[in-house]
Amino acid sequence: MNTILIVDDEPEIIRIARGYLEQAGYRVLAAHNGTHALQLFRQEKPDLVVLDLNLPTPVGDKPLDGLDVARAIRQMPDLTGQTPIIMLTARVEETDRIIGLELGADDYVPKPFSPRELVARIRAVLRRVTPTPQAQTQIHVGPLVMDLTRHTVEVNGRFPNLTPTEFALLQALVAEPGRVFNRSQLVDSLGLDYVGFERTIDSHIKNLRAKIEPDPGEPQLILTVFGVGYKFNETL
What we know:
Elements: E1 3-7, H1 11-23, E2 27-31, H2 34-44, E3 48-52, H3 66-74, E4 85-89, H4 94-102, E5 107-110, H5 115-129, E6 138-141, E7 144-147, E8 152-155, H6 164-175, E9 181-182, H7 183-189, H8 201-212, E10 222-225, E11 229-232
Parallel strand pairs: 1-2, 1-3, 3-4, 4-5
Antiparallel strand pairs: 6-7, 7-8, 9-11, 10-11
Helix pairs in contact: 1-5, 2-3, 6-8
């Protein structure tokens, strides 16, 4: 049974989300502020976090909003720091969404939201981090080795920590070196049906390059095909 941590300061949202998620077979934990969220995260090590961007600060505590919580999770060592995060917020500005995704969020659900859609998105993200038993277990391309069972990536002896979304994007690219993917096709590879997500693919590619490229400013692995999209370098 997968454990989902919901972090939101609105009890009614937690109550509704908990009901739908428990009905779908998930174990649900809840936190109402960032401090409590990080405490629960460290203690329980949930499989996925649904995180509100706007969080209150308890009296006497250090301010800690959703972006701070996401940043703290991504800085944790080993696989803990790769825990999937779905941002849940009333903010609609594209800048806020992109900041969250650049911090490593895997999806973004604006309020008000459909509880059924939230459950569907959680399932989609968790599917991306669950290896298929019959699938190829390793992919070797040039200096890069992806272990699909262990969910690890090795590049020139380094083992960068990738978020589930970054891992899925990289897997789609390296599975067909030289093939040019447009943003819509990359969204499809993630199992998402949210059209607006196409505009955030660039943020995830930027994060990937920062982690796997020798020089992110002059990428050698993930190449931009201007006016079209991206491809993995087939000449390595």
